[in-house]
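ok so for the tutorial part 2 we go from a plain amino acid sequence to predicted structure tokens. step 1 is just haveing the sequence, like this:
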Amino acid sequence: MAKMTHINALERVKMNFSTVGVRTTLRDFELAYWLNLQYGLTLVCRPDPLDTWEESAVWEYNVFDGKDQNGEAICMIMNISSGANTNKVEGWSLFESMPEKHLLPSVKHWDYILIAESSDFAFDLESALKKNPKITTAQYFEAHTQLTQQETHLLYEIRNV
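step 2 — the prediction. this is what the tokens look like for a chain of 161 residues:
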């Protein structure tokens, strides 16, 4: 009898992108607008939110795609859900907050994740974000060291859509 082995198709794919985590009170469109204005980026919200299915619900996350001033791709992803469609019949009351879920639980302290092609640009962006009074904090991090393999693959797929 032949031995079966599980093959992960993305295991050998190099996840060559730089990530910056951002914590801020700014809404997603405000942050995208500020980044576009200050850095000549072209971040535009995808027409349809990213959907993930878990726990009898569909969780939605806004994703912004664009290019930096050198023409390289950049992507901004909300780490906190923007909405949810649940199978609950009763719905939410006025006194409940809308449920939230983190796209990347390993780094749930970040509100947004910026994915840049260039590590130099990511470092410059981190420094600039830290100077903005509306940004609580920002930090460059390596996805493959801070995230689970599944989360890293998810970022790779989001970036390449």
